[in-house]
Amino acid sequence: MARVVPVGLFVAGVASVLFSAGPPATARQDKKADALPPAASTATSDVEAVEKVLLARKEYEASLKKLWQHYTTAGDKLRQKWTEDELMAYHLMFKPSYNLDVHDVPPPTLQATTNVREANELFRMAMEYKGKGNGNDYILNMRRAEVLLREILEKYPNSDKIPEVAYQLAQLYESRAYNQLDRAARYYERSFQWARGSRTDARLRAAIIYDRQLNERSKAILLYRDVVEHDIDAERIRTAERRLAELTGGKK
């Protein structure tokens, strides 16, 4: 059976990262290394508004948690339940990344160099939630997994687990619980950019999303070429070569 932790425990524990005043500098995108997708081409005009939305989300959630703690301490079970219900609704609510470069996807320059015990434990907990349950339990558990995975990137950006963290986030954003494909593609890219070697399908998965879902064929072509050049899996290379030939008319 899926492990579903009561909302009260979740409120008090695994989402503590969201109390922070703001993400570290690594959470801002390296503009030179990764261009904005077409849908966010007006990013220079939306940054301030997006930052305000993100801050409002954090303040709203933090206020609810504070109220939950007050009613818990006071023994007011009815109002405690109200805050739990509102917090659950908040976590189930669709919260898109309006601009991936504003406190969302860290830059490709992070280095996965250090075994961090705390990061390992957060990753283990995230995997206990990810993909588990049905209906609202499934969505809530995916939200819990997201919080834990993103906490690793924010608190331990040099952890040797960050390539896998990025891959798991990409799968999460690609899932039916989110369906945020631009976000998924970017995190697949980070997964292979942060990883040593090429024993991953992240390049190909990013290429397919840019190609099939986001209609960003020029970016897909670059990634398909990277698969051919860097991958070691014969089937992935053949898949990339076939699609590359279709997109370029056989040109290399």
What topology does this entry show?
Elements: H1 7-12, H2 43-74, H3 77-92, H4 117-129, H5 135-155, H6 162-174, H7 181-194, H8 202-213, H9 217-230, H10 234-248
Helix pairs in contact: 2-3, 4-5, 5-6, 6-7, 7-8, 8-9, 9-10
Notes on the protein architecture:
With 252 residues, this protein is an all-alpha fold. The chain has one domain. The protein is 62% helix and 0% strand. The chain is built from 10 helices and no strands. The termini are far apart.
Question: Which terms summarize this structure?
Answer:
elongated, single chain, mainly alpha, disordered N terminus, 252 residues
Summary?
By secondary structure, this protein is mainly α. Helices cover 62% and strands 0% of the residues.
